[in-house]
Design goal:
Strand content: 15-25%
CATH superfamily of the largest domain: HAD superfamily/HAD-like
Number of strands: 6
Structural class: alpha/beta
Number of domains: 2
Helix content: 25-40%
Strand order of the largest sheet: 3-2-1-4-5-6
Length: 201
Amino acid sequence: MTEIMTKRDLYIDFDSTLVMSDKSFARMYNEKYKDDPEFVKADWTKHWSWSYSRICPLLHKYFDDPHLITREYYNSEEFFVHLEFFPDAKETVEKLSEKFNVIICTSAFPKNAARKVLWIEEHLPLVDEIIILINKSGQGVGKARVPMMEPEAIFIDDHPVNLHSTKASEKYLFKSHETDYSQDWDGAIFCNWKEIGQALL
């Protein structure tokens, strides 16, 4: 009788890990404020904090609560129309799916969640499992509430708080550039998807 091999679970975060969310956000900001006399083009690679204060200062000038505008951007159809994978991410995930049970695990605002699932379904149809944590007021954290992330699992995320919170035995910080929230981590780091492929394939 042939033994069935069980694939190891590989959990992958979505925003700013699998896809360049900050790039899509900056594009929307640049289009909206390009005619403002104080406009300076937002460079998404210099994104530093969830409030986008460094690269999108006009949000802080015109709105008392820029976090509300941030959520509006993430909830919009336009955000997903222009959303892109990080270089080599799609191809690497497709190869990883042959070796691992790939699971997308991501926090989302209520209006953002449906669009996110549909985007994943369209662009990564081979991924069968998607875990969405509805987080109405947070900043992309809260994955400690995912008990399915068992000790044998592998977890890749751009936020150390999420990595610290789970029991996964292998945890990797995805760090495409420095941010204020990526400092509290002394474990393994991936800077791009080629490194992920080289380490896990």
